[in-house]
Amino acid sequence: MRMLRGYLELRGTILFRLPLLLLLVSVGRTRASSGDRSEDFSGCLANCRASGCAFLSAQATKGAKGSTCIPDCIPPASGEAGEGGAESKLLTTAWELRALRWTCNSECKYQCMVQREAAKTGAAPEKYYGKWPFKRVLGAQEPASLLLSLLNLLAHAYGLLSLRRTVARLPLVEGRAAYPYTGLWHLYAIFNINAWLWSAVFHARDCKVTEQLDYYSAVALLGFSLIVALIRALGLRTEAAQVTVSAPIIGFTTTHIFALMTFIDDYSWNMKVCLTMGALQLGTWAIWGVRSRHPSLLKLLVAILGVAGATALEVFDFPPYFGVFDAHSLWHAATVPLVLLWWSWVNDDARYVAQKALKGKDVAEKGKTS
Ligand SMILES: [Zn+2]
């Protein structure tokens, strides 16, 4: 769950994150951008770190010199400006900034970005540390992507509830549930909800910890989604068969995440791993759907193609409209209906499998009586 944005960000759902992955871009973002490399930004940042006030040079603002002072970061008169530790001081005067753990350093970066962009006259927005200059809302760095990540989360929760309702209405076949994959879809929903939660947190506040949790959650989601695709496509109903298919993927995925947490610092490797898992999953669903002539094949294919189409938004990677809606946030918006469509397909699949099981039972009983 962000790529052509300068790096690849892994987010989205498996299926629905796949596009991201496909372009991907994302697993290692380029931190330096033209905005933060500029001299006027660097000067502003140095001033802010030393004095607690963000201001551009007179030249940068064409004489309209302004200054934004951060009360928490202004050194006491008797103190020594720029002392070590001051940059990491947490802000305390605004509850939303305190809650999201904004520090003097991150606040200085934000205020200098705002000042530099405001001082531009007609020039295009520039990226800072790999991100467009978004307007912060209640302390959240990317408010649109944050809210839309939560909408995706709710869409998965709703999808799971809809499946539970559908399965509850299905008749038992020989005393057993007619749809044997309900438990699997429960776990699938949990992995998605977890991934979208950390996606929302990361969009609220981009820092090392939130970035890693977002990436690890996305990798785990990709791994589990591949397991779901293989188990459903291969029609594995017994625990032994499901474990046989799942074990190597779980082993690989956990090892990969552990490696990312410890000694692998090469995000291009992570990108290749995610691309491969995403492609395998997508290919599995598409090939199986067509070969099995699934009655809801159209929904399945529309979901897959919809993801591909929505991904184009990421490719364009345009700056945020109104300082809020960039290509990435619109991609998150596009995945919400696709998630609902996906769960609608899962519901159809449950009814389809149950129907086949009942037909098979009827045929068997007729055979016994004839
Ligand atoms: Zn995102």
UniProtKB/TrEMBL annotation:
Pfam families found in the cross-reference section: Per1
Transmembrane segments: 144-163, 184-203, 215-236, 243-263, 269-290, 297-316, 328-346
GO BP annotations, alphabetical order: GPI anchor biosynthetic process
Keyword terms of this UniProt record: Golgi apparatus, GPI-anchor biosynthesis, Membrane, Signal, Transmembrane, Transmembrane helix
Signal peptide: 1-32
Topological category with respect to the lipid bilayer: Multi-pass membrane protein
A GO-annotated cellular component: endoplasmic reticulum membrane
Compartments in which it is found: Endomembrane system; Golgi apparatus membrane
Record-level Gene Ontology MF annotations: hydrolase activity, acting on ester bonds
Protein family membership: Belongs to the PGAP3 family.
Function recorded in the entry: Involved in the lipid remodeling steps of GPI-anchor maturation.
PANTHER family: PER1-RELATED, POST-GPI ATTACHMENT TO PROTEINS FACTOR 3
Identification of the protein by name: Post-GPI attachment to proteins factor 3
